[in-house]
Design brief:
Blueprint (H helix, E strand, L loop, with lengths): L1 E5 L5 E6 L2 H4 L5 H15 L58 H17 L3 E4 L9 H9 L6 E5 L5 H7 L5 E5 L5 H6 L2 E5 H11 L1
Parallel strand pairs: 1-3, 3-6, 4-5, 4-6
Antiparallel strand pairs: 1-2
Length: 206
């Protein structure tokens, strides 16, 4: 399929042929769901922890004799029913990540790109180079496109001025092509690829 290439002034500067094997695959929501869940699970720190019975700071002595008091039978103060006692089945430090086949991950990225293309929210720019690193100047340029939120994906080397200028803009993310991922693509309204990003993504996903 053919798309129009624009520049940061929202002017048409040419056309580019996109590979159907990458940007025109069927949009499968089940694949997107699996890949996004996998990504978010990997991000979890898993450092939540509570003290169990054996980790509390209490004497191991029986709190009172077994018989003759008229009260319930108890062991030590670390029992879960006492204040300051251990917690039963509480969270432990663990890794929440799980394995996902490479083919599924690859298909997920293709599906995310195809979903943006089908929705008419994929834009190709000739490049992201700007003269200054001023956020105000970049915000003025982007206002003409009317994007509520946008993800920019460039080639292997990001333009330093563009990256610095976009850092303080709400709803704007900038990634090199190596960092392209399903979650960031789906969570932003528009997806902007540079010509270099298209070449690298097609080489990576074909």
């Amino acid at each position: 399929m053919q798309v129009t290439i624009k520049n940061l002034r929202n002017e048409d500067v040419g056309t580019l042929e996109l590979a159907d094997s990458v940007f025109a695959v069927p949009v499968r929501e089940d694949i997107l769901h699996r890949v996004i869940n996998w990504q978010l699970a990997k991000r979890r720190a898993g450092t939540h922890k509570v003290k169990e019975r054996g980790e509390t700071s209490h004497s191991t002595a029986k709190i009172y004799r077994q018989k003759g008091t008229g009260r319930a039978r108890h062991g030590n103060r670390a029992a879960v029913q006492f204040r300051g006692g251990g917690v039963v089945h509480g969270p432990r430090v663990r890794d929440h990540g799980f394995d996902l086949p490479k083919k599924v991950r690859k298909l997920g990225l293709k599906t995310a790109l195809a979903a943006k293309q089908r929705a008419g929210k994929l834009i190709v720019l000739d490049g992201l180079a700007v003269e200054t690193a001023k956020t105000k100047d970049l915000a003025t340029r982007l206002k003409g496109f009317g994007w509520p939120s946008v993800l920019f994906i460039d080639g292997p080397n990001l333009d330093a001025n563009f990256e610095r200028a976009a850092r303080n803009l709400v709803g704007v993310d900038v990634l090199p092509h190596q960092g392209a991922n399903v979650y960031d693509i789906i969570r932003r309204d528009a997806l902007v690829l540079t010509r270099a990003a298209v070449e690298h993504l097609e080489a990576r996903l074909k």
